[in-house]
Amino acid sequence: MKALILNSGLGSRMGVLTSEHPKCMTEISPRETILSRQLRLLADASVNEVVMTTGLFDGVLVNYCRSLDLPIQFTFVNNPVYATTNYIYSIYCAREYLDDDIVLMHGDIVFEAEVLDKLVASPVSCMAVSSTLPLPEKDFKAVVKDGMVLKVGIEFFDNAMEAQALYLLKRNDWKLWLDKIVEFCESDKTKVYAENALNELDGKANIHALDVKDLLCQEIDNPEDLATVSGRLKEIENRTVYMTFSTDIIHGGHIQIIRKAQKLGKLIIGVLSDEAVANYKRFPLVPASERMVMFENIAGVYKVVEQKTLSYRENLERYKPDFVVHGDDWVTGFQKPVRDEVVSILATYGGKLVEFPYANDQKYRDLDNRAKAELSLPDVRRSRLRKLLEMKGLVTIMEAHSGITGLIVEKTCVYQDGGTKQFDGMWVSSLCDSTAKGKPDIELVDMTSRFRTIDDIMEVTTKPIIFDGDTGGLTEHFVYTVRSLERMGVSMIIIEDKTGLKKNSLFGTEVQQTQDSIENFSAKIRAGKAAQKTRDFMICARIESLILERGMEDALTRAFAFVEAGADAIMIHSRKKDPSEIKEFIEKFRAKDPSTPIVLVPTSFNTVYEEEWKALGANIIIYANQLTRTGFPAMQDAARTILENHRAKECDDKCMSIKEIINLIPEE
Ligand code: SPV
Ligand code: MG
What we know:
This protein has 668 residues and is of the alpha/beta class. 40% of the residues lie in helices and 21% in strands. Strands 1, 4, 5, 6, 8, 9, 10, 11 and 12 form a 9-stranded mixed β-sheet that branches. Strands 19-22-23-24-27-28-29-30 form an 8-stranded parallel β-barrel, surrounded by 8 helices. β27 (538-543), α20 (552-564) and β28 (569-572) form a beta-alpha-beta unit. α3 crosses α5 (171-186), α15 (403-411) crosses α17 (447-460) and α19 (518-531) packs parallel to α20 (552-564). 40% of the residues are buried. Magnesium ion binds at residues 429-431, 441, 468, 470.
């Protein structure tokens, strides 16, 4: 596709403005002339070959075009008799360069990017017309019937629309018109409009009317036009466009949509906060502060701001952008409520939503998968629990005891109120790990076997892991456990202040359980902290005083002593249904220690919502055994159903489909 720009005219109605250069070099804004704007928009629309006819000042014009340094290849054609002929003759002079699809425009037309984009994207020949503007007395009008342009000229008022000499002409249609132009010029009809030749074709050139309505598309004939157009441009250039990004990798697809958005106005980019990204898709590899810098450095981005939540409300109300740009992938699906909210906020002040086709390109998905894989590397995974705590204040952790339960924790996601919610990490429970192996929870499953479970989970997931270290064993052994876990990429070990043969805490005082002394347990914590190599790894001290009914004071004394010994977090446990003793502990602990993270395992005291725990000052909520306790009864039920029915059919409805399994477990 080539552009043909007609710049041979004298532009005498512009007065002194055209005394030293052609009209197209008239300034329309502090940075642009009519021509530089046309050429920049053509280059943006990937029209990179321009044939330009020239007349008076042709040397000035040629030098000017070259000085613009645009990715455009020019062919200049001088009309030697520009003073006595009309542009029909200029086209005739250029005819040998025009065997292509042609964007034809007069050199004095100013239009906004959307007009040219629509024109260039048109699958058929078309001419820019407006159904909303009044018919001009002395300028072009197009006679339009059934969407087709039949005639163009000044004299037509019936069935006519305001029209501008801006066309897309497909090669075959253009050839018909060009042949007529040649015929006219060779029989000396050179003082008429090229459209006179077109009109003789009686609509055979198949030119459709492209209705650009109120979009700017206007020729500049005199200083009054110049003032109007400059004013419109100022208003257009002050329009703002808002887009949100959650990505930590910028690829070609992003740049493409950014370029499209920039054509609509000054582009404000909202970078989604780390917390919102972590909830919405995955933990960001690059923090929001750095992602903001990435976008600030993309040419032509006007401003970068943080968007704290998936909802656009706060930023739309603050910046009131004229446009919000998004891919069309949110028209349906879980983001629909976010979109609906955007539409309703835009409606309050007359903003517009512009949706471009979503680039669902495999190569971009691969890129994101590679980034995701990085999250499973030991160093990256280990450090993430601390970051999540910092970012969210409260993190939620779900039990996993195998690859498949790990995948369930990794992937389960619910969509609520336009947002998403998923677990932040996994708890490798001693109870569930032992149960899965058919063994009691008495530190019988040895560390090697427990590590094997962690490895199975790590192989297929990326989220941080908290390991249930029971009593931690002998201090001499514990230091090795800390190092091994740290090396594997586990984020935290929780050890309980018990000694001897450990029994599960939920038995409480029904079984013989011995609490360790503060001194011994503190020494174990100190040794563990001294053994670890990184700053990221955390040792959490679990206090069993309430389980063993030793009272609140004992629990608090131990908590402060263990923090003193170096514990990075405190877990307080209870087997009562009533959450009051846990609430009392949090309140009293927080009165003296505002920052050490508090971990809870609300299996018995399960009536309190996460939001309330957060408000009270808790930081990690572990759902310690629910996958085990729901999974195994389902298996027992299936086994019983088959035994009772002597076949598997009755079990079918209880089964996960093979398709669902395939979705849960992707092949590499
Ligand atoms: C586990 O899940 O193994 C625990 C938590 O240690 S609890 O069972 O509540 O003691
Ligand atoms: Mg346990």
